[in-house]
Amino acid sequence: MKHVAVLYGGISTEREVSLATGRGVIKALREAGYTVTAIDVGPDLRTTLAALDPAPDAVFNALHGRYGEDGAIQGVLDWLGIPYTHSGVRASAMAMDKSAAKAIFAAAGLPVARGAVIDVAELEHADPMPLPYVAKPVSEGSSVGVEILREGANRRVEIAAAWRFGPTALVEEYIPGRELTVGIMGDRALAVTDITPDHGDFYDYEAKYADGGSRHDIPAHVHPDIYQRALDIGLAAHRALGCRGASRADFRYDDTKGEPGRLVLLELNTQPGLTPTSLLPEQAAHTGMSFPELCAWMVENAACRV
Q: Is the pLDDT of residue 202 over 60?
């Protein structure tokens, strides 16, 4: 498998992140010896289809957000019969829909936060659950649109008026403590990273992608039982959704009353970022795998999926 097309950019709110991911992947794959065609995906699908003709040996899907990790482009590539990296239509769509993913995780016995999907208009009139709580888009990534509502903040009306992510929102209990993440490659959980944002206690968009926006401690300094449990839950979540290739499970860990504390699975990302500040490449490096080797592994495990 030598000719790889890299799809990056896209038309979601995460376009800039995808461009950064794509540039890094293109460079890494060329270093690994592949012939690479870079395709900056825009709003005209016909242009993308033309760029995929003749068909490459595989597509590296470096898109993030809607149309890139929600099953849309995956369905197109399945139709064309071109092998691609990461998860297929069904797993991608379910992971992108946070409410659907939570239902699957709960059915699998995995620990999830208490919450519900509400009409955003409800925020204008009353708190849908006890403060503090989190309001987030049902189908966005990279912490886009996530809001924490705390005692005395009185921001409900402002948030509802500015909401641009559809008529509904997912509201969940706010879990204090730490942010942990686990990278998955195939049937292996790599490591647990403890994430400390440089401001506040929330790993938001800026903390994820700004240079120096957060500190990543790997391996995480947590109770050994929690460390192993995070690895096990991350892999179980990957399997519960039917994911393939690489993914990343994100957690909150409430150790405010001491360890071992409460570990809660927030979501599973089927298209983990591959930027200079991203977590999966750090965990792969921790296991001895270089970035070009990681990207090559993804390509060699590309397939048409369900």
A: no
- Burial class for 293, CB neighbours closer than 10 Å (0-12, 13-18, 19+): middle
CA angle 206, 212, 215 (to 5 degrees): 95
Residue in the block written with tokens 């706010």: 174
Domains of the chain: 3-86 (3.40.50.20), 95-111+176-300 (3.30.470.20), 115-173 (3.30.1490)
pLDDT at 207 over 50: no
Return the pLDDT at 199. 60
Peptide bond into 281 cis (omega under 30): no
Distance CA 282, CA 131 (A): 35
Task: Enumerate the active-site residues.
Answer: 14, 142, 209, 248, 250, 267, 269, 273
Q: Do 168 and 135 form a contact (C-beta atoms < 8 A)?
A: no
